[in-house]
Give the backbone structure.
Amino acid sequence: MLVDAERLHIAVQKSGRLSDLSRKLLADAGLRIANGKNALTARIENFPADLMFVRDDDIPTFVADGVCEWGIVGENVLKEFALDEGEERCEVVAPLGFGHCTLKLAIPEAGEWRGADGLHGQRVATSYPAVVADWLARQGVAAEVVKMNGAVELAPRLGIAPVICDLVSTGATLEANGLKAVETVLESEAVLIRTRKPLAPVKAEQGERLCKRIDGVLGTRDAKYIMLNAPSEALPAITRLLPGAEAPTVLPLHGRPGHFAVHAVCRESVFWETLQELKGVGASAILVLPIEKMLP
Ligand code: ATP
Ligand code: ZN
C-alpha cells in the first residue's frame, strides 16, 4: 500500500454490510471519491485524503497503529479489538447511525433458557471471544468460549457448543438454523474512529476539517423544519413537544388576532405520534420539511 505522508488515510470496509453506507456518509460530507478501479485505495479528489479498502476486522489495528488516521467500523469489531489490545488505542469520535446489529446468545429452539447462571461449565461458540468472555465474567459465569471464524450457527448441530453468540439483525438466520435468541450481549452500530497516535499539525488540522464535515451530515440527518399555526395559549405546550428544537420563531398571523405561526428546526426524528400530539394541544396546518444543509 502506497502511503502518502501529506494525505489522511481513512479505513473503510472493502466489501460488506458497511461498505456502501460508509462511502455514502463520506460522499454526503462532500468528499468526491474517485471511482478508480484500484480496489485497495481510492483518492478523494477535493480533500487531502485517501480511502483504504480493507477487511472490517483489520480497521481497528490500522487506526490504532496510525497506518490510517481515521476509520469507520462496527462497535462489535472495535470492542473485540479494544478488549484484546487496549481501549486507549483508538478514539471513538461519533456513532454514525447505520450498521445496527445486536450480538446475542442463542440456543436450539427446543432448549430451555435458565438465564446466564445456566451457562456454568458450558461451551459458547462465537466469532467475538473477547466480548463474550467479558460479558460472562461480568455475569459471574465460568463458561468456556470457543472461537469460530464463521458458520457459528452450526455449532450446536455439530456438537461444538450448545450455546452460540452471534450478530443478529432480523433473527431470520437463527430461525433458519433452528435457534432462538435468548440474551443480548452487545448493541452495536458503525462508529467513526481516529488514531491516538500523535499527528503532524497539518494532518491534525485536516482531520478536524473532516470531522466537522461529518458532524454537519450527522446533525442534519434526522433534522426537520416544522411549521405550524397555533393559538397563543397553546404555545407553551407546543414548544415542549417539538423534538430537539432550539428557540422557535413565533410570528403573528395576519388577520387572526391571538394566533401565531411557529417555525422550528427539530434535531430529532419527528414521528407521526408527535404530530398527533401537536394537533391535540391546538396546532393546525402542520408542515414538516427536510433540511438539506445546516451551518450552525
Ligand atoms: P469482512 O470481509 O470485511 O471481514 P464481514 O463478513 O466480517 O466482512 P459483514 O458481514 O460485512 O462483515 O458485516 C460488517 C459489519 O456490519 C459487522 O461487523 C457489524 O458491525 C455490521 N452488521 C450490521 N448488521 C449485521 C448483521 N445482521 N450481521 C452481521 N453484521 C452486521
Ligand atoms: Zn470481518
Q: What stands out?
A: The two ends are 38 Å apart (CA to CA). Residues 201-221 form the longest helix (21 residues). The CA atoms of residues 177 and 217 lie 39 Å apart.
